[in-house]
Hints:
This protein is an alpha/beta fold. It is built from 12 helices and 12 strands. The strands form 3 sheets. Strands 2-8-7-6-5-3-4 form a 7-stranded mixed β-sheet, sandwiched between helices. Strands 9-12-11 form a 3-stranded antiparallel β-sheet. Strands 1-10 form a two-stranded parallel sheet. The radius of gyration is 21 Å and the shape is globular. The model has no long low-confidence stretch (mean pLDDT 95).
Amino acid sequence: MKKWIAQRTNYFDSSGIRRVFELAANLKDPINLSIGQPHFDVPDEIKASLIQAINEGKNGYANTQGILPLREKLLANVQKEYDHADRRLFVSSGTSGGLMLALLAMVDPGDEVIIFDPFFVMYEPLVRLAGGTPVLVDTDSNFQVDLQRFEDALSDQTKLVLLNSPSNPTGVCLEEASVKAIAEICLKKDIALISDEIYREFCFDKPFVSAAKYNPETIVVDGFSKSHAMTGWRLGFVHGPSHVIDTMVKLQQYTFVCAPHPVQWAGVSALDCDISPYVEEYRMKRDRMYNGLKDHYELIKPDGAFYVYPKLPWGTGKEFIETAIQHQLLIIPGNIFSRHDTHFRISYAATDQQIDRGLEVLRKLVTKP
């Protein structure tokens, strides 16, 4: 009965994305440029490690914080990069699980959380689920952070800032000067900072820069889903100050319990897997998509992740996406990721053939049919 449903569920609205797939359900040969999932499969050596772990009986509960070999290997990499005196790490049930636990660990009802618009679709509802108040701060025309706008949005109630670079949905990597400024402001004002780094391996034009480089109290959320195509395996990790990580582990014990045990052993193997060929392949796909659109659409060249975020050439996002579906093309309206209905998201995590088919349709749709 409706009266049994908790009010907090109203914070989650899947109608926009769900409508895309409802409209596309009867398509016989769709051009799917909608999903943020690598088009390549999990590398064979990682699959073999998972199978070995299962066959060796590593199928029961793992330690809540994760198996020691994986934690030690991950933390060694983290400490090599940052060398922070107080940086702990635990293994989460996916990056999304890590984000949820971080917000539950730090956000109280009434606390304000800064989110830069456009943003990953989960951010706003997860903040509300934790009882917080999302404060959306528009980025500039290049999807970079406007530092003055950011500082103007801060208040006595600001508890936390959510940072995502490279960005979903724009594919933009934040300028290092902006990352440094945000990190230092948060440190100075005693504001928590979460850096969502799930796309950090996919930086094409400049080295990745983490806020943790400039703020040792940064909570970093990362994982294997995008870099190793392990989206369905639910393996993430979080590192940051011990008092935050210890609290998150406590919450994990009473929610997710642990990340999937055999998958964690596969994660040990994944850390030795060379993913640079995949990164280079996506760099070429980025160029293929951008070069195919730049003379037809207003868009910023993405320098990371695997998304392009063009401006709508006409109509609303709903109108444009529905017309695209009539031409077999699946893309996502920008108002899923923003309070502004001005853009749409394309994922080029697809075969070159699918990308070329999509480009052909998109060039036709520049002018309203």
